[in-house]
Amino acid sequence: MSLNSRGLLAFEHLRMRKDTQADPEPEKKEEADPDNQAETAKEEEEKVEEGMWEETFKSHSDGKPNGPSSVSLDFSLPGVEHVYGIPEHADTLRLKTTDNGDPYRLYNLDVFQYELYNPMALYGAVPVMLAHHAQRTTGVFWLNAAETWVDISSNTAGKTVFGKMLDYVQGSSETPQTDVRWISESGIIDVFIMLGPTPKDVFSQYASLTGTQSFPPLTSLGYHQCRWNYNDQEDVQSVDAGFDEHDIPYDFIWLDIEHTDGKRYFTWDPHKFATPKEMLQGIMDKKRKMVAIVDPHIKVDSNYKIHNEIRSRGFYIKNKDGGDYEGWCWPGSAGYPDFTRADMRAWWASMFAYDQYEGSMENLYTWNDMNEPSVFNGPEVTMHKDAMHGDWEHRDVHNLYGFYVQMATAEGLIQRSGGVERPFVLTRAFFAGSQRYGAVWTGDNAAEWDHLKISIPMCLSLGLVGISFCGADVGGFFKSPSTELLVRWYQTGAYQPFFRAHAHLDTPRREPWLFGPENTALIRDAVRQRYTLMPYWYLQFYQAHHTGQPVMRPLWVEYPQDPATFALDDEFLIGRDLLVHPVTEEGVRGVTAYLPGKDEVWFDVHTFQKHNGAQNLYIPVTISSIPVFQRGGSIIPRKLRVRRSSSCMEHDPYSLYVALNPQRTAEGELYIDDGHTFNYEKKEFVHRRLSFANNLLSSVDLAPDAQFTTHSWIERIIILGASKPSKVTLKTADGQESHIDFEFDASMSVLTLRKPGMNSGADWTVMLQ
Amino acid sequence: MSLNSVPVRSCTIKMSSRFHQLLPMLLLLSVGVSAVEVQRPRGVPLSKRQFYEEGKPFTCLDGSHSIPFDRVNDDYCDCQDGSDEPGTAACPNGSFHCTNAGFRPAFIPSSRINDGICDCCDTTDEYNSGAACQNTCREMGHKERESLQKMAEIAKEGFVLKQQLIQEAKRGIEDKKAKLVDVQVVKKDLEEKVEALRTVKETAEQPEKEAKERHLKAWEDQKALIRMEKDKARMAVVFLELDDDADGLVSVSELLSHSELDPDSDASFTEAEAQGLLGGVDKVDTEAFEAVWNNLKEKYVSEATEDTAAPVETPPEEVREPASDNESEQYPEDDVQEDEEEEDEEDEDDDQDDADYKTPPTPATQEKKDDDDEGTMPPYDQETQNLIDAAQKARDDFDEAERALREVDDQITNLEKEISFDFGPNAEFAYFYSQCYELSTSEYIYRLCPFNRVSQKPKYGGSETNLGTWGKWAGPEENVYSMMKYEHGTGCWQGPNRSTTVKLTCGKETVVTSTSEPSRCEYLMEFTSPAICGEPPSRDSEPRDHEEL
To answer: What region holds the Glycosyl hydrolase family 31 C-terminal domain (chain A) (predicted)?
Structure first.
């Protein structure tokens, strides 16, 4: 990598407006005395260009007190043909060259009905780009929260495969190279280069700068049922009952803005949600939880406690003239608290205390929407750049606003429990480091097949830059999905990190049971598949929390030397061991999945059929198919007793799926803790390595200094690619040996060990003889 | 009933992971007579007890295979159909039977066994989860019986009312049918009357038409005469004007001074052209002028009016009002009146302004001007007027009879519609017809007019919104009259047209009990009526029968 090789290092220094110095009211002066213009011009040493000190956009004006500031630098990446990251864009995983259009733009915006395959700015911004070729992965972290543009060009972009081959044969090929230019509107050049050389190195290097994914409560990895809006408490109760009636598990039900008293966050509509604690208790009785929305725009209303406190403490962002900035949002006229202030965040966090947030209980969590921030009557539906955060202009910190909102909210949820409970906060806007505070979703998508498809590269791109807890609105937010699309979206969402259905106010209801028994069954099946894999998802997040590795991964992260994987974004890995190729096209009879790994095998998780790696596999599909494969050489723990919520499954036994590789070995891990507190930081957990080799499957403690008592036990062990043993013996830590019954399916080479029964936290060995 | 007085033994079960435990149960084989203890594995309903025989191999209920009996309820799923684990959560598709003594027995999914949530009112689903469940079966049974009793009472009274409604509806239909017969007779009479009056009318209209035409013809002739005279007068004036040297002859050179007469309007009016206009000669006298007058009169501009061209061009506007009024020719007297009124200057100006941006003067209005000059049609003579009056009377009589016939037709249509309308199997819903029922909420007044429409009106001002007009009975197949569907209401922004489902339940009164909007622009209304009440079960058979204690 080389910097400034194209000489694009540039910056516009901050200027003092000279005429302003000479006369505090130059414009008035000019108006009053036009003859004086010559004198004014003399004062200007530099040529004043239009827009230097003020710009207008539609009816908005932007005063630029420091003049036309900007910074820029270019990076050349020899040997690189694939660059990734810089979310959030609704685009392919592999970034495109921008020679023929706009650069990728990073500027957090509330975009109405966003367009796909487009470099336009969306809700969040992480100025991190990864560059990859078969020998090395590197990264660039451009730490700047102002509006940023990224231009990408490549010397091979226009070439066809044949052209490249010709170059190769002729030996005349110049080294492929990608050139990238970063430009920000203000601030300084503050760049971190991550040198890799492996993708994992880049992830941990970046994690050392911005932190890792927060470890979410286990339940938040379950299914979330959301809608704008559940009308009232009765509605909430009947939807909750609907899930039980149709035997579909879920963990969280969500309330959008209509639950509040006139869009005053931290309050409840006195008629529709008159007794919120009663409602929350009803949900708690089912071991389920709720999320209510708290947006950062605060209704300007002198009868609203939150507003009065923020105003009296001077916590609102100011306009350029020093008054409280006011914009138009859901409640009408609204103020925007200055979340860049630590004292403001501390105060905000204190508002989540149970005695402050009336009607809240420990099973109520929070959703921060509109935190780009969204200002309906602002330029591009966001805040004026010349609004002031203390001495800082909004232009300098814009992309950080949403980050701070989520940070303060997460802190509030931690504090209300006395630092015991892990928070869960969903945000729409984000920045580098937002992974530390919760989950992110891809905003207001639409009920269209292309939007289902784009959810994969959008979440993969976020994962690459640290934000693992990502999901798209299942079903699509705007418009109404066809039944087939809805079913396919559940099937896809069930295998993405954040799994939430959501719908616009104006769409017809679409709870899973409203589309006939067959479709209810299909959706039930998809959701249940999610729940059987909760132990695996939880383990992935535990690991992401420790290492910064993404949970949902592009294939190239695990197969960095296989160029066939570099641009794949219609399939993905969860951790290392599960490969998912969801069906994202209408009416198809089959999909072609690339199974990586020259010497590897993959097992269809539904049929246990074994397939070789390094091939494009055609998979016939029906409406019930979700093509998922387990890597040979892995061990995946599942819980097959799917109950109505993940909390209900806490003590249930595990089934271990041991998929043997051609060397007849396999490895996996099992992680267990209480699922919701920070006690894991005090070493209260079970973390075991499961390994199979030489016909011995054993469980070894990976954290001997940790302690946790689990009631769960090992219910069954399913060994894929096994041969038939004559007997199976379990040896426990105390040296006791016992026979294990087993079944062997010769047609699929599946060995099922029946009810070995040992505690999940114990040492044990199973011998196949 | 002695059901509630039977003691229930609560069972504490020591769980073992390997061995099942049979659940000793109390059972009343015949209610209140004798108690027999029947052993069966946990979660098995009595009806399936015989498949679970202790000590003998258990065959999965789907017949797929057999397992030793000690694998029944051993917390491991051996049967695909889940039948080996009726009392544990081991099978994903199993079900657990709660006896729920004092209430209704129930099956719950196996996944709800020991999940910490009390599902069975007898607490038997939570035998090993630590959940502190209270046995609520008696309470629930009591409540259910109370509510069933209440409902039964309502149903009973409602059903009586329903019978009345059916009788009323029957009478109503009979009445309507009878009325229909009457009205049909009336209709027949009316039809005959209409035909007779039509003949009268046509008979009277023929002479009227002829007389009018005569009158008009006379007027046209007179007008033609006047026009001709005027033309002649103008010709004489023009001749005098053209004849500059007053020699009684109009010459080519005299003609040339009027360049507007240039036949090809090419800005060069040649002698040859002028000569051509004069019929090929150099001079014409008055007689010869008459022969060529037609060549000149269209284009000729009077010397007297040349300087004041504007007023010449305005006449079309001046007559705009009379012209338009002339279109209603059957009221000639109005025209007269109009003309008698003196229009002042300002009115004239206004008209002119109007014309400036409305329509340019047209030949039609030019003609009207001539008409105007020629005066208006004189009133009909007495004879014609008498014919017209007679015809008008015949027309009025005919129209009135026809109107009456239409009314009767409407009446018949309505009656037939009402008679054939689907008011339920016994027309018990007929009494809703042309009624409306309202429900007032905090924000709106909802109004249900059955078989017509549903609407919503804001309480504090604002216009009414149509939530749907009558569509159809929309209940499930076995009870199609339990729901009404109103469709195609006012459209929603970015959404569907509003629609309303009305759910009917048995009640003594006919009243809208609730409304809601479960989905955007899809309303749900609850409506009670005796007409939907079913026949209450007879005294002998109790509403519920207990399968078990």
So the answer is: 548-636
Among the partner-chain residues B17, B111, B117, the one whose CB lies closest to the CB of A286 is B117
Mind listing the pLDDT tens digit for each residue in A99-156?
A: 989 999 999 999 999 999 999 999 999 999 999 999 999 999 999 999 999 999 998 8
CATH class of the region A2-13+56-210: mainly beta
Query: Coil, strand or helix: which one is A499?
Result: strand
Contact A59, A534 (CB under 8 A): no
Beta strands in A237-391 (DSSP E): 252-255, 289-293, 298-299, 326-329, 332-335, 364-368, 388-389
Whether pLDDT at B79 is above 60: yes
Q: Is A514 on the interface with B (CB under 8 A)?
A: no
**Alpha helices (runs of H) in B63-136, residue ranges in sequence order:** none
- Of A157-161, A163-167, B347-351, B384-388, the one with minimum mean pLDDT is B347-351
> What is the interface pTM, i.e. ipTM, of the complex?
0.90
A653-768 and A2-13+56-210 share a CATH fold:
yes
Q: Which fold is adopted by the domain A218-294+343-374+397-545?
A: TIM Barrel (3.20.20)
Residues of A in contact with B516 (CB under 8 A): 231
pTM of structure? 0.79
CA A377, chain centre distance (Å)? 28
Q: Are A709 and A685 in contact (CB under 8 A)?
A: no
Q: Is B380 helix (H, G, I), strand (E, B) or coil?
A: coil
Cross-chain residue pair B496–A247, CB shorter than 8 Å: no
| Burial group, residue B222, by CB count within 10 angstroms (0-12, 13-18, 19+) | middle
pLDDT of residue A164: 65
A272 touches chain B (CB under 8 A): no
Q: Where along chain A do its domains lie?
A: 2-13+56-210, 218-294+343-374+397-545, 653-768
Task: Give chain B positions within 8 Å (CB) of A508.
Answer: 496, 519-520, 522
User: What's domain A653-768's superfamily in CATH?
Assistant: Golgi alpha-mannosidase II (2.60.40.1180)
**Contacting residues of B for A506, CB less than 8 Å apart:** 492-495, 520-521
Does the pLDDT of residue B26 top 50, yes or no? Answer: no
Interchain CB distance below 8 Å, B494 and A506: yes
CA distance A499 to chain B (A): 22
Catalytic residue ranges of A: 369, 444
